[in-house]
Every structure is written in C-alpha cells, then in structure tokens.
Design goal:
Length: 203
C-alpha cells in the first residue's frame, strides 16, 4: 500500500507547528538599577510550539514561517495528479529541516535495458538557512547524509524563499513536473553516452 501525505506527516512526526517571535535584548538599565528588556522589530527567531525548541534565531522581518503542512501541500498534487510515489519523509536536527522524497514511476532507461530510479525531493527549513526546495536526484533521501548527497548532485533545483508569497500549489506543481521531464531526459542521455563509451584496460 502506497503511503499518503497525511500518513507520512504523522508517521514521520512532521505534524508540529512553528511560530516566529521577536528577539529580546537584555541590557543594564541606564539608571544603573535593574535590566532593560528591548524587543527587536528587525530580528526574530522560530520555535516549535510542542517542544519550545528554538530552530532559528537570526531571522529578518520579511521571513515567513512555512508550516510543514504548507510545504508538503504540493506533494498531494505530485502524487494524485503526477503519479509519483511517496517513498520517505523525515525531519533533521529536531525539526530544523524537513523533507519528503518521491519516486517517479518510470525509471530512466540506460542503453535500453539498465534502469536508474529518479526521485523528486521537497525540503524546507525552519532555521533561516534552508529555502523551500524542490529538486531531482537519483539518491533516495532518508537521512541528512543522503540529503546532502542528493543536494550536491542535484542538476536542477527550484528554490523558494520563505516569504508571504512562497506557496502556490498548482503553479509549483506544474513547474516541478516540467523540470522533471527535462531532467529525466538529460540524465538519460548522459547515462547512455557513458554506456556507449568503451572501457580500456591499462596494463
């Protein structure tokens, strides 16, 4: 049975909420007595409401929290309309980064017979260092190591800043599927060229 997005969110413990709050600065009072608390209007931090874990602490006023449910809403379109299969989901560093990995049903054919699986990864960060990402890889992402390998090897990557206009499910789904077609064709051609190259033995 193929996993649904709702099941993946619950199974991977991704159903937590992230909030953004202003940083506060504690300074000795100019009167010489006590502490003055200054609330910043330009510096913010994010935290999980279920654990109070601080995820990012150097965020600007334009940074917009993208909840996990929002970030992965595009996955519904990819599964239901694009025919992709949800393979894995998880969070890293107590929720600083979250991801879902989807497998394309049709593998790449190399030289007409060898097959290479193709994946689309949706990842997002709550620490201010990771944008909302959609990229193509031949690596099945299940942990931080495989995520870094996949990111390093990604030829085509769509990056969305964490702003109020970040999410548009239909438009992003169309963009992702369009890139998937181009990427699959390019990777298949590259593998075919390698397969046709004669291997020489050096004595």
């Amino acid at each position: 049975t193929e996993m649904t997005v709702e099941q993946a969110v619950k199974f991977a413990n991704l159903d937590f909420i992230v909030e953004k709050a202003p940083n506060r600065h504690y300074m000795p009072s100019l009167s010489g007595q006590g502490i003055d608390i200054i609330t910043s209007d330009t510096s913010f931090f994010t935290y999980r409401t279920d654990t109070n874990k601080v995820l990012g602490d150097r965020l600007g006023s334009s940074y917009c929290v993208i909840q996990n449910e929002q970030a992965f809403s595009v996955v519904d379109s990819l599964v239901n309309e694009g025919g992709l299969i949800l393979e894995s989901a998880g969070s890293l560093y107590d929720g600083c980064t979250v991801f879902m990995c989807l497998r394309m049903k049709e593998p790449i054919k190399v030289a007409g017979y060898d097959t290479v699986m193709q994946y689309i990864v949706i990842a997002s960060g709550h620490d201010g260092n990771t944008s909302l990402l959609a990229f193509f890889t031949n690596t099945r992402v299940v942990c931080n190591n495989t995520l870094q390998v996949a990111l390093k090897g990604a030829v085509q990557k769509h990056s969305i800043r964490h702003t109020a206009k970040a999410m548009n499910r239909l438009d992003e789904a169309i963009k992702i599927m369009g890139l998937a077609t181009k990427n699959t064709k390019a990777v298949a051609e590259a593998y075919d060229r390698m397969a046709r190259r004669e291997m020489l033995r050096h004595e």
